[in-house]
Amino acid sequence: MSNTKTVGKIEKFDEFNGHQIDKLTLSNANNVSISVITLGSTLYELNVPDQDGGSRNLILNFKHSQDYFENPFYISMGIGRTGGRIADGQLVIDDQQTQLPQNEGTTTLHGGPHGFNTQIWQGELGKQDGNDVIIMHHLQKSADDGFPGDMAVTITYTLSSDNVVSINFAAKSSAKTVFNPTQHTYFNLGKTSDIMNHQLKLNSTQALKLDDKKIPTEDRIDVEGTPYDFRQTKNLGQAIQAMSATKEKGFDDVFAVNPDANNIIAELKDPETNCAVAIESSRSGMILFTANSFTHDHMNFVRTDGVGYPHEGVAMEPMILPKPGQDRDFSEMTIPEDQTVAYSIKYHLSF
Ligand code: BGC
User: Any alpha helices (H) in the chain, and if so which ranges?
Assistant: First the structure.
């Protein structure tokens, strides 16, 4: 009898700074497999069968651990304690201000210089309903990243028999702190080196207006009649081209999202391969980053054999929608002391 369960394995990926980095893989009966490396709890592969009997990796990855730190793009890495930007690194919880370490000029981006992505996680295989699952553990210490509280974090990756990848982030902290994690997955569902021919739909009517440091302001952009309007499925490349007069020359934006009845917030498809991903999240925001500033150098991608290309992938990063930066209102992402809080992101794959 063939095995209809999801099965896992662990193997060595490489060495980084004197530490062994492992790769953990789950495979289901449909020839779909996912893998995660212990460096940064980084999603390494989402492999689906292609039409020629081979397999296609739907996300961007690098050849070596070191490659992940040769550029500022957090390629498919685990992000925390908080995704997005904290203005001037000034965190406020209950009127108490904490000065966080900064890693983008004066800003604290994606958890700062010692965020989840920089940590080596302890990876193991576990069981859920008879299926293997990938579990990553890490104790994120206040002394290391400057946020209040020592936070025990577990990220669990599962792959269902109907090709849903689910990522569950659970955290418990020794003091009140903030938690708004995400996975910085860059999708490229096609055969080419960019996502310009992909189609995108977003359940969003507004994006946040950002200042020149990309910090959210109190102003909103109504998407109607603008390139930000993805309410109906449309070609992503044309939308990016419509942004060519902007400084960013594409999207690096925070959308307010309205999860539908099934908590779907975004759907991406490549019409050539027919591969698609629907993103499920119950949180109120999502960053859309179309990799506008990717360069040829310092981007040792497996897909394009060591060279990077602008728009090589698109990142959609579910998170709690940030409040205007200067308001310093972190209440929605604040978690109590000693209580487990969890968020999940699901990728529904089709091919
Ligand atoms: C940010 C971009 C940044 C990218 C990679 C996105 O979430 O909004 O500005 O370049 O992550 O770090």
Answer: 142-145, 236-241
- Span(s) in the chain for CATH 2.70.98.10: 7-185+341-350, 189-326
pLDDT tens across 314-327, in order? Answer: 999 999 999 999 99
Tokens (6 digits) for 287: 């960053």
Contact assessment for residue 276 and residue 188, using Cβ atoms and an 8 Å cutoff:
no
Catalytic residue among 110, 138, 184, 348: 184
> In CATH, what number does 7-185+341-350 get?
2.70.98.10
3-state secondary structure of 116: helix
Could you tell me the sign of the dihedral formed by the alpha carbons of 82, 84, 86, 89, in that order?
positive
d(CA 103, CA 101): 7
Q: Which atom of ligand 1 is nearest to the CA of 252?
A: 8
Concerning whether 138 is annotated as a catalytic residue, the answer is no
85 lines ligand 1 (CB under 6 A): no
In terms of Cα–Cα distance, which of 197, 196, 164 is closest to 46? 164
**CATH T-level fold of 189-326:** Beta-galactosidase; Chain A, domain 5 (2.70.98)
Question: Which of 252, 288, 311, when mutated, tests ligand 1's pocket best, judged by the most ligand atoms within 8 Å of its CB?
Answer: 252
Give CA–CA dist 49/16, Å, rounded: 31
Protein residue with its CA nearest to atom 8 in ligand 1: 252
3-state secondary structure (DSSP) of residue 101? coil
Question: Model pTM?
Answer: 0.97
Per-residue pLDDT of 139-183, as tens digits, reads 999 999 999 999 999 999 999 999 999 999 999 999 999 999 999
Euclidean distance between CA atoms 306 and 62, whole angstroms? 8
